[in-house]
Amino acid sequence: MIGLSPEPDHSRSAPSKATVNYAEHVASILNEHCVTCHRPGEVAPFSLIGYENAKKWAPMIGQVTQSHQMPPWKAVPGYADFKDANTLDPVEIETLKNWAESTRPEGDPKKAPPEPSFSSDWTLGKPDMIVSPSKPYRLSAEGPDVYRNFVFHTNNSQPIWVRAIDVKPGNKRIVHHVIAFVDGGSGADGCLKKYADGQEGYSAEMGGLGFLPRSALGGWAPGVRARYAPEGAAFQIPPHGTLVMQVHYHKTGKPEEDQTRLGLYTGPKPEHEVGLNWIFRFDLNIPAGVKNYRVRKVYTYKNDTVVYGAMPHMHLLGRSMKSWFEFPDGTTKPLVFVDDWDFNWQLIYSLKQPIRVPAGTKEVVEAVFDNSLENPRNPNNPPKTVRFGEQTTDEMFLLIVPYTLVRPGELDSQNWLAGP
Ligand code: HEC
To answer: Which of 69, 122, 174, 413 is most buried, most CB within 10 Å of its CB?
Structure first.
């Protein structure tokens, strides 16, 4: 069964330019795929709720959906199946195009689906623990993005087992994404002293955490929904561990403030600890001017493992990343393929069906970088050699893979940094 995709539905076709209208055809597409972000107070710069908004933006809606810029979901459909996949099918894209190119009629408002309503509550109910800076963080009007690391000591003598996290951004105009890291040592405290600047938390070199964390609990980006860890599994905050909430801020041209909250859902000691396998290349060396620079890394699993998803990470030269498994019996299975990487969309792709990976399996990760001037995001003109580093203008080759071991036990610490 697994791997078979459903038969395509040939019975559906897009309404023609003469018949297409908002109420019957367009509203349901926008409500399902767009308004989670395109509504007041959310990350997108304008609302797409209701006929008037949709009409005003219709030409651009047609453009950005045909170019696959929106909705921002970068995993190639059909390579692997993910939860929460937000993609439009060809019929939906054509429907939006036909409406944009027509007189954009509203149709009969009685036939429109109800306007979606959104709750401002935590989606999984009230968290067991909420951490938040004690006062709003002040962000200046202009300049590069800020990665602010807020540090919280748990002071627990026993491990805390985290089943899920959720994030409530304080100011969605500026909060781009959030990652919750766990420090098992004193790295975060050292950084607080080293980078002290009068506000809570610290900002290390651009994009950096400033130390090597023990693990991460997960993250939040617009459109990402809170989820529990798989049954019988949880993330661990070790005794006296430190939580670091890293918030990536975009500036708006006006001074802004934010007080983001991180909610933790805890539980008893589970059968399995969730680990993150960071498949890395530290030895990146991307020659100036080269358009299709390929980098590959093969990671061999030492234990029988279950893999739940993947989060690719590159910076501005990254163009694509693909990863698959090569099992000891010679068969293969796809994990993730992003063919149009965009640094602005750091998405976590959770598999619909976790993959069982026997010891000895190889996971292949392949990325392509474009260090030519044809890459509009190239930060260097003329291009120059770019190496591994934390600054956005450096590069990264990283795939983060959440996993559990089939036989409960200590996580293989090697799996935290599977570098060369
Ligand atoms: C996960 C959040 C999210 C979703 C879902 C989303 N958008 Fe967006 N959209 C954004 C953000 C943020 C921007 C502004 C930054 C950018 O252009 O990347 C944007 C920008 C746009 C723009 C302006 C593009 C430009 O070049 O200025 C259009 C038009 C648009 N979205 C339409 C849509 C449509 C139509 C859908 C659904 C099919 C959709 N968006 C789904 C977040 C989202």
So the answer is: 174
For residue 43, which atom of ligand 1 is closest to its CA? 12
Residue 370 within a domain? yes
User: pLDDT tens, 71-86?
Assistant: 988 899 889 999 888 8
- Answer whether residue 120 shows pLDDT above 90: no
Cα–Cα distance list, 357 to 102, 145, 222, 318, 348 (Å) = 51, 38, 31, 27, 20
331 and 394 assigned to the same domain: yes
DSSP annotation of 115 reads P
For residue 158, is it within any domain? yes
Identify the band that residue 343 occupies on the pLDDT scale cut at 50, 70 and 90. Answer: confident
Counting the structural domains of the chain, the total is 3
Q: Do residues 298 and 410 both lie within one domain?
A: yes
- Which atom of ligand 1 is least distant from the CA of 342? 18
Residues 262 and 286 in one domain: no
Structure confidence at residue 417 (pLDDT): 55
- 306 with 176, same domain: the answer is no
Mean per-residue pLDDT, 82-97 = 93
Q: Give Cα 39 to chain centroid, integer Å.
A: 20
Give all strands of the β-sheet with 362-369 in edge-to-edge order.
Answer: 293-300, 362-369, 318-326, 332-338
- CATH code (residue 289): 2.60.120.230
Per the structure, the complete domain to which residue 285 belongs is given by 275-416
Which CATH number fits the domain that encloses residue 250? 2.60.120.310
Share of residues in the chain with pLDDT > 90 (%): 67
Q: In 10 A of CB 210, how many CB atoms?
A: 20
Q: Is 65 in the pocket of ligand 1 (CB under 6 A)?
A: yes
Atom index in ligand 1 nearest the CA of residue 221 equals 1
Distance CA 188, CA 184 (A): 9
Q: What is the mean pLDDT of the chain?
A: 90
Ligand 1 site, residue 37, Cβ cutoff 6 A: yes
Residues making up the chain, counted from first to last: 420
0.70 exceeded by pTM: yes
Among candidates 237, 239, 244, 241, which has minimal Cα distance to 266? 237
Buried residues in 20-52 as b, exposed as e (16+ CB within 10 A): bbbbbbbbebbbebbbbbbbeebbbeebbbbbe
